[in-house]
Amino acid sequence: MLLNGFYEIISQTENDGELITSVHFNSRHEIYKAHFPGNPITPGVCIVQILKNIVCEKFEKDMVFSPVTNIKFLNVINPEETPEVDFNVKYTLVDEKVKVNVTVADSAKIYTKLSGYFN
C-alpha cells in the first residue's frame, strides 16, 4: 500500500454526522525523501488517500471518491513543522452515496478543504 507507515491515526471521535480523525505524519517515510528532501511537503494525493481510507473504514467498504466537486490546498503540510492534523469529515448519506465536506486543519491553520461523494 502506498501509504503504509506514512501516517498513524492518533484519535477519532464521532458525533452526529461528523467524524474527526487526528493523524500523525511519519516525516521519515520514503514519500518525504522523494517529495522535496530537506523541505518535505505532504503531497495532495496523499491527503486525499488518507481521507478515502478514513471514510472507507467508517463505512466498512471500499469506495471511490467521485466526483470531487471542490478541492483547495490552502497551505502546505511540512511534517517536520506540522506533524499532526485533524481530518474533520462532515458526512451525509445521499442516494446510497456518502456526501462529504472535509477540512484538514490544526489549531493554527486550515490546510485543505474539499467536498464530494464516495460511492
List keywords for this structure.
2 helices, 119 residues, 6 strands, six-stranded antiparallel beta sheet, alpha+beta
SSE topology:
Layout: E1 7-14, E2 18-25, H1 30-34, H2 44-59, E3 65-73, E4 84-94, E5 97-105, E6 110-118
Antiparallel strand pairs: 1-2, 2-4, 3-6, 4-5, 5-6
Structure explained in plain terms:
The chain has two helices and six strands, in the order E-E-H-H-E-E-E-E. It is of the alpha+beta class and 119 residues long. It has a six-stranded antiparallel beta sheet, with helices on one face. It is globular and about 45 Å long. The model has no long low-confidence stretch (mean pLDDT 93).
What average pLDDT do the residues reach? Answer: 93
Determine the oligomeric state from the structure. single chain
The main β sheet shows up as: 6 strands, antiparallel
Rg estimate, integer Å: 14 Å
Give the helices and strands as they follow along the chain: EEHHEEEE
Structural class: alpha+beta
**Terminal Cα separation, in Å?**
21 Å
Spatial strand sequence of the major β-sheet = 1-2-4-5-6-3
Residues in helices, as a percent range? 10-25%
Count of extended strands: 6
What is the 3D shape? globular
Q: How many H/I helices?
A: 2
Strand content: over 45%
State the low-pLDDT regions, or none: none
